[in-house]
Design brief:
3-stranded parallel sheet
């Protein structure tokens, strides 16, 4: 396949001969320098392979493949069976240490062990390495897409409709858009907006640099004339379930920019344990107090929100203002 394989018997591996020479150190050094590691289980247990080399590959994030001789894998399954099937005879019992290792690989780490036999080893190895190469190509493609997105977002004012379409596709399909150095939400907010599913995808992003601006620009990303209550409720749930409290804080401002009626209607469902969220809700109700007083429905909704913000009781300037407004609304 064009690769340069290393094998411990060939002398090609990395090693250092000195007074403190160690097979483990040599193995770890070799794995750290490898592009892909192939573990081949034939019959015997290799302590260095599983306690040093595999750990090094996992820690470094090096792609690896685990191949196992079919007969050995059958011996492993027979050892694992509570009541072995007499018809499923194996040539020889498996080493208990190897059985324990394979059990850990599959059950604890959910690693995939691929079987081969003497006549299929080359084909199986070629097939499994090809899968690794496919993942590598996909990673290169993803990086190229992020670089493309970065160049597009460098001058958002000059983005064409086609550019915005590309930015939208990259933002929604790239798993780590933060790697591009600029965030897609501000650029997308300059376009015609997104649908509910696309907006939720950005808000749900595990990247703080994507989720935060998406929530902050919610009113510009999602431009429906009348936002659906279920959609806003889902946004609130996503922000509330996040470990980043800044999402809910930013969401308060976005909700009131969307619609006073909708903001008050869904604010009752917000997680308001954070003081910053409570204070922002009180600030917006105070800013819109005149409009709220003019509507019976808005008055009732604002009372509910303020009541939640005031629990538990305590002294602070914003609570004093909230208490005064609550009295005004109830009068």
């Amino acid at each position: 396949m064009g690769a340069d394989p290393w094998h411990f018997l060939s002398g090609d591996i990395l090693y250092l001969n000195n007074a403190s020479a160690s097979w483990r150190a040599n193995s770890a050094r070799s794995v750290a320098a490898a592009d892909v590691v192939v573990f081949v289980v034939v019959r015997h247990y290799g302590e260095v392979s599983w306690t040093t080399e595999l750990r090094q590959a996992v820690d470094d994030g090096t792609p690896f493949v685990i191949l196992c001789l079919t007969d050995t894998y059958r011996s492993y399954l027979a050892a694992e069976a509570d009541r072995p099937d007499p018809a499923a005879a194996v040539s020889q019992p498996i080493d208990p240490r190897l059985a324990d290792t394979m059990r850990e690989l599959e059950r604890t780490y959910s690693f995939t062990i691929v079987q081969f036999d003497d006549s299929t080893f080359s084909a199986v190895l070629r097939r499994e390495l090809a899968k690794v190469f496919v993942h590598g190509i996909q990673a290169l493609t993803s990086r190229a897409r992020r670089e493309s997105l970065a160049s597009l977002l460098g001058n958002p004012d000059s983005l064409t409709a086609h550019d915005l379409h590309i930015a939208r596709e990259v933002a929604l399909t790239s798993s780590r858009t933060s790697g591009c150095g600029r965030q897609p939400s501000p650029a997308l907010a300059r376009g015609d907006g997104l649908d509910e599913d696309s907006t939720l995808s950005l808000v749900r992003s595990s990247e703080q640099g994507v989720a935060r601006p998406s929530v902050e620009l919610l009113d510009r990303l999602y431009r429906a004339a009348a936002p659906a209550h279920d959609f806003l409720a889902e946004i609130i749930d996503v922000a509330g379930d996040s470990d980043d409290v800044a999402l809910s804080r930013r969401l308060v401002h976005s909700l009131f920019r969307l619609s006073l009626e909708d903001a008050l209607a869904v604010a009752c469902d917000m997680h308001v344990s954070d003081v910053g969220i409570k204070r922002r809700l009180v600030d917006h109700i105070e800013t819109n107090l005149e409009a709220i007083l003019a509507s019976h429905e808005l008055r009732r909704a604002a009372e509910l929100v303020l009541g939640r913000c005031l629990a538990p009781a305590g002294e602070s300037p914003w609570k004093d203002r909230a208490t005064a407004m609550l009295a005004t609304l109830g009068s």
